[in-house]
Design a protein that fits this description.
This protein is α/β, with parallel strands linked by helices. The chain is built from 14 helices and 13 strands. Helix content is 32%, strand content 18%. The protein is elongated and about 75 Å long. The structure holds heme C (HEC) (4 copies).
Length: 336
């Protein structure tokens, strides 16, 4: 895309270390930055970048919340953001810009504990369009709300203030005219879908029986003994989660499937692995909440099942995907 800097956030980390290792190859002239990624270094990843414009040194870094999408960060380690930030801010500069992949509230709390940041950009902010604010000397601004907006800012180095600062809406009315960009996105989406379908075909061709073995038996196994519950579940949106992806042409997309399927490997469970290998685990089925039922269907009189608390749900109903989620309220909507 020709951007100078790319700062992976919680949504990118979902792909895990394996995918991060491939990013360098796609980066072109842009720098991949994460200020507090720990563990084994990833080639191509830097903690910060200095861009010099008209003799002014602009220090840019990015930090990520170790609490966001925690369960999904497989193979990656996230270090204490504050310690990492303070280390980077010691590097001489005229302007310090930090991208916060944090909620608004947690970003503010971190800013209160840090000195010397000029501009803080919120990287995670679905559904919230908070007012810009100076927090502990830093201008806290929002940028792109899941691709719906783009931030614009003019900075005056003498007064150290923003002279112009606004959010540009990216929607059909303002941007549909750019047919080239639309065609690029369209082409990319089509390419991506074909790419995933091809990977699926390869999986089927190379599939060993070991791959498809899973202690998750699938919904059809429950209907016979729990007919009423099965009928009640059918009426919930959990039963349509896969159809939702199909409608969006995303039914092969590994970014979407983990939360629209049952017992996903991406969630460190041993159920859904891919459309080709575990097609019986589409949708958010019984076993997503109650646990793998292989033993239960053999010995129904034995105790079975997870204690169901908020933790079961927020694996998917995250601050990103469902900011208004309330366990007591939403539980009523799926009761059976
Ligand atoms: C062969 C019949 C049978 C099948 C198949 C079966 N169950 Fe059960 N299940 C039972 C019986 C019997 C009980 C205990 C009495 C009750 O609560 O209805 C039970 C209890 C449960 C409980 C409560 C367990 C507890 O300890 O309180 C859950 C949850 C459950 N089943 C889920 C499932 C799911 C999910 C499936 C499908 C993957 C399934 N069952 C398939 C017969 C079955
Ligand atoms: C594996 C991921 C996953 C888990 C775990 C999960 N959900 Fe969901 N939930 C979804 C998805 C995906 C949808 C949207 C499905 C669609 O419309 O296509 C959804 C939809 C819902 C809805 C409907 C939302 C609405 O406003 O109509 C409710 C209510 C809900 N879930 C409650 C819960 C509760 C309560 C739990 C925990 C006991 C839970 N979910 C666990 C993925 C999950
Ligand atoms: C982290 C888990 C998660 C991931 C990843 C995820 N979803 Fe969802 N999705 C949810 C949950 C939870 C809901 C239900 C939210 C609600 O409406 O309460 C949902 C709802 C939806 C809805 C229904 C929205 C509506 O109101 O009708 C669509 C469409 C959707 N997701 C598409 C996608 C697509 C496309 C992807 C991949 C790009 C994706 N999802 C990835 C968890 C997830
Ligand atoms: C989104 C999560 C979710 C899904 C999906 C789900 N359940 Fe449940 N189930 C619950 C919750 C919550 C309870 C209430 C008991 C509790 O709080 O532990 C419950 C209760 C039950 C019970 C009664 C257990 C008892 O203690 O009396 C059975 C049996 C059961 N579910 C079977 C099923 C079957 C069969 C399916 C699929 C057709 C299913 N559930 C799908 C969340 C879920």
């Amino acid at each position: 895309m020709g951007a100078d800097i790319f700062t992976p956030g919680a949504q990118e980390l979902i792909y895990g270390r394996k995918m991060m290792l491939t990013l360098e190859g796609y980066a072109g002239n842009s720098t991949i930055i994460c200020g507090n990624l720990g563990g084994k270094p990833i080639p191509g990843f830097k903690t910060h970048k200095i861009i010099t414009i008209s003799g002014q040194k602009i220090l840019i870094t990015s930090i990520i919340d170790q609490k966001l999408e925690k369960k999904a960060i497989h193979g990656l380690k996230v270090k204490d953001p504050l310690a990492s930030l303070n280390r980077i801010l010691k590097i001489p500069h005229d302007l310090a810009i930090v991208v916060f992949h944090f909620s608004d509230k947690r970003a503010r709390s971190l800013l209160e504990q840090t000195q010397g940041i000029d501009i803080a950009i919120l990287g995670t902010q679905r559904g919230t369009m908070i007012k810009d604010k100076i927090v502990n000397g830093a201008l806290l601004v929002k940028n792109n709300n899941h691709g719906k907006t783009m931030g614009y800012l003019d900075w005056d180095f003498t007064t150290k203030t923003a002279t112009d600062n606004k959010l540009l809406q990216i929607n059909k009315d303002t941007y549909a005219a750019d047919k080239t960009a639309a065609a690029l996105v369209d082409k990319h989406e089509k390419w991506l879908r074909e790419h995933y379908i091809k990977l699926e075909k390869e999986k089927v061709e190379n599939a060993s029986t070991k791959e498809t073995k899973t202690p998750y038996v699938g919904n059809t196994e429950c209907v016979g003994c729990h007919p009423q519950i099965a009928a009640s579940w059918k009426k919930t949106r959990h039963a349509n989660a896969f159809a939702t992806l199909q409608k969006k042409c995303k039914e092969y997309c590994p970014d979407c499937l983990p939360c629209h399927s049952t017992g996903s490997y991406a969630h460190d469970k041993k159920g859904f692995s891919s459309p080709a290998t575990t097609p019986h685990l589409f949708n958010v089925q019984c076993e997503e909440c109650h646990g793998a039922a292989q033993e239960h269907i053999k010995k129904p009189d034995q105790p079975y099942g997870n204690t169901i608390n908020a933790g079961v749900c927020i694996l998917c109903h995250t601050t990103n995907t469902d900011p208004d989620f309330s366990f007591p309220e939403d539980k009523k909507l799926i009761a059976h």
